[in-house]
Specification:
With 230 residues, the chain is mostly beta strands. Helices cover 0% and strands 53% of the residues. The strands form 4 sheets. Strands 1, 7, 12, 13, 15 and 16 form a 6-stranded mixed β-sheet that branches. A 5-stranded antiparallel β-sheet has the order 4-3-2-5-6, with no helix packed on it.
Length: 230
């Protein structure tokens, strides 16, 4: 299961109420004019986030570099949900004044046959699912139940499983995926928001325009399937 993303749910609590290293707060507390965008955030040679590109293609430099424990590699692009306001840069170009940052998981896509102990599909609540406007990501917004036992926070596992590719009647490909979720015995005392982005560039079979991707998500009300045309 090396390609499945291990997830400590303390790291994905709702960003505006969570504390510690998984949010960034400028300290001004002003939420008027705040924007929230799913972005690719670029780190510099010191592993500080210095710029973002939104899914709408808008590229913004940050007024203040942001350091996150989960984004520790220099010169790397990370997926994130960015809360910010716009500011005027010295050259007159708009910049992003960061207010909070939430990690967005981008798991590797693991063939079902490569998971030795079987595909775990413990239920989640599926809040939303969409294809990003730039076509680079299929995004899932889920709520995962979590809690502590004996004072310690358990670790759950989230990933994306590949179940194969079919050829449709029109000769296009249908790529079948599943959300992997192992509750791992963590108590279900309260809810934590999490976002998962599936990178289209990592999909098997070199999908092309017009191909479709379906993803099954096991919820408390049964299996929900969402389908997207690339």
């Amino acid at each position: 299961m090396k390609a499945l993303t291990r997830l400590a749910l303390l790291a994905v609590a709702t960003v505006l109420t969570a504390c510690g290293t998984d949010t960034y707060d400028t300290g001004d507390g002003a939420l008027s004019g705040m924007r929230a965008d799913f972005v690719e955030a670029q780190t510099d040679a010191y592993a500080n986030m210095v710029s973002i590109e939104t899914d709408d293609g808008e590229r913004l430099e940050l007024t203040t570099p942001v350091a996150m424990e989960w984004a520790s590699r220099p010169d790397t692009v990370y997926r994130a949900l960015f809360y910010y306001s716009l500011a005027d840069g010295n050259d007159g170009q708009a910049e992003a004044d960061p207010m909070a940052v939430q990690q967005v998981l981008v798991p590797e896509i693991t063939p079902a046959d490569d998971i030795a102990d079987g595909v775990k599909t413990d239920p989640v609540t599926l809040e939303t699912a969409w294809l990003s406007s730039n076509g680079r990501y299929i995004n899932l917004g889920v709520i995962i139940k979590t809690g502590t036992a004996d004072g310690s926070q358990g670790t759950q596992t989230v990933g994306i499983v590949y179940d194969g590719t079919e050829t449709t009647a029109d000769g296009k490909k249908l790529i079948r995926l599943r959300l992997y979720h192992d509750q791992a015995g963590v108590p279900e005392y309260y809810s934590a928001d999490a976002y998962v982005s599936i990178a289209v560039s990592r999909l098997p079979g070199l999908p092309t325009e017009g191909d479709t991707v379906s993803i099954d998500v096991e919820t408390y009300d049964g299996t929900v399937t969402r389908t997207f045309t690339l």
